[in-house]
């Protein structure tokens, strides 16, 4: 649930204050002056006209005229000042709100579960949008305040002339306000409802324009199909918005006509009253300006009320993300994650991704002793990568526990735990950054430390490749962006092969060597046999004496592990050294023989 309007308004006000207290106060002052300027002009005009229409020029005429000129100047200058101040405040608001949002996504949600929850993803998208729309939120709110000040000023003035007429003008504006509240609430709901369709639309658009999908889209001829899906989603969003616009048109059109009729009636009354001597000429001028201004201010008030209301409802998603329950409980006083002395142990670990999902692990007990190289094997979907994610505490076990030197991971700060782990994930990242950054991101303390980066790349066997790139390690490993220096160069950026990317991922892990636990999830799956043997030798050397967990489908790469664990149907089906498992003649032996027979066949 998004927080209520008041909470959102408080959060927005706090964000604006945090963005810049000075600008906020300055903006308030300018807006108040801008709100009062039209009222001052109308009153000064009335007084001038009355003076001129009465006894002629009086002693106060000169100061009144000067006042009118100053008010005119202010009326001309204030909007520009207000607009600049508002935009600047809006920009700073956006920076602050964006910073807080992304700080929350990395520091508050320490696991992965939130990012697999479509409702949360929709909320994140709206939160991001509303953080980026700081200018609209800030200026909408202040336009509202300014319209309210103008309104109060003119209502006060009209009350002096005709309380009845004032009430009628106000009453004509009230339904608009009520309608706006309803419409804006509906608009905010619509934004949330349309979230999935918009995200799918984005997804299809991305597929149609991304290089990653281009091969399959072309070969399978799926472009028309994807375009159709995209347009279908777009059509759905448009239809919902059109219904909303029509609703708005119908209700607002009628209300505007009502307002115009009231203004016309009031004007007739004022002219007739002046004819009968009940009002002065100045009064009529004040009345005409007053009615038009009250209606103008009411329209502005209603309009900015609607948009501010909607902006605040949207900003509610920002506030909701910032205050959402963390996905992983972290104790107030976490136990320090010390250097691994004895080992990591999974004790009767059961896990499913949510209550609706099937069990993936069903009572896995496993010990990774310090200094040992443990290999995890099993068929596709056996739960190997899931186990890795639990070891990094991206999720907590549904039942059972994982212990680091006897301490439950739940009692530790996940960031401190992860500091002690190095990993290559099966679905490792290709960052659209330079080669150096792609390696350094494994350990940011190495940013700018060229020798460390080169050494890690050397260990992963990718140094020669990276050094030979057009700009060496500074070459961008993407054709999606260009660096400032390469702006004019159509050849900017390079594309690495799958195996080269795999080595870069390995270099990131090697940059973190010396950590207590090294996890290698399919580190050589994309490599040619020679490269695989070489990477295997390198990882083995790195794992020597280090505590490591290696997942691989290529059983020749795990045969020298201290312990091989076979995972099947969510439990440990076999465990032991290579020779023990071969002697036991179970799944491992069968798979090993299958693979080696394949190689022998190929060699014949
Ligand atoms: N985020 C997720 N949400 C729901 N189910 C998931 C998620 N990630 C994985 N699964 C499911 O968990 C099961 C185990 O997946 P996992 O990736 O751990 O298998 P694996 O042994 O590493 O397989 P492979 O050898 O193919 O890499 C699969 O059935 C998969 O569909």
Automatic annotation (TrEMBL):
Gene3D superfamilies associated with the record: ABC transporter type 1, transmembrane domain, P-loop containing nucleotide triphosphate hydrolases
PROSITE patterns: ABC_TM1F, ABC_TRANSPORTER_1, ABC_TRANSPORTER_2
Keyword RNA-binding (UniProt): no
A GO cellular component entry from the record: plasma membrane
Protein name per the record: ABC transporter ATP-binding protein
Bilayer topology term: Multi-pass membrane protein
Principal subcellular localization: membrane
Protein keywords: ATP-binding, Membrane, Nucleotide-binding, Transmembrane, Transmembrane helix
Domain ABC transmembrane type-1: 25-310
GO terms assigned for molecular function: ABC-type oligopeptide transporter activity; ATP binding; ATP hydrolysis activity
SUPFAM superfamilies per the UniProt record, alphabetical: ABC transporter transmembrane region, P-loop containing nucleoside triphosphate hydrolases
InterPro entries from the UniProt entry: AAA+_ATPase (IPR003593), ABC1_TM_dom (IPR011527), ABC1_TM_sf (IPR036640), ABC_transporter-like_ATP-bd (IPR003439), ABC_transporter-like_CS (IPR017871), P-loop_NTPase (IPR027417), Type_1_exporter (IPR039421)
Subcellular location: Cell membrane
Domain ABC transporter as annotated: residue spans: 344-594
Transmembrane domains' residue ranges: 24-44, 64-82, 160-179, 253-272, 284-305
Family annotation (Pfam families): ABC_membrane, ABC_tran
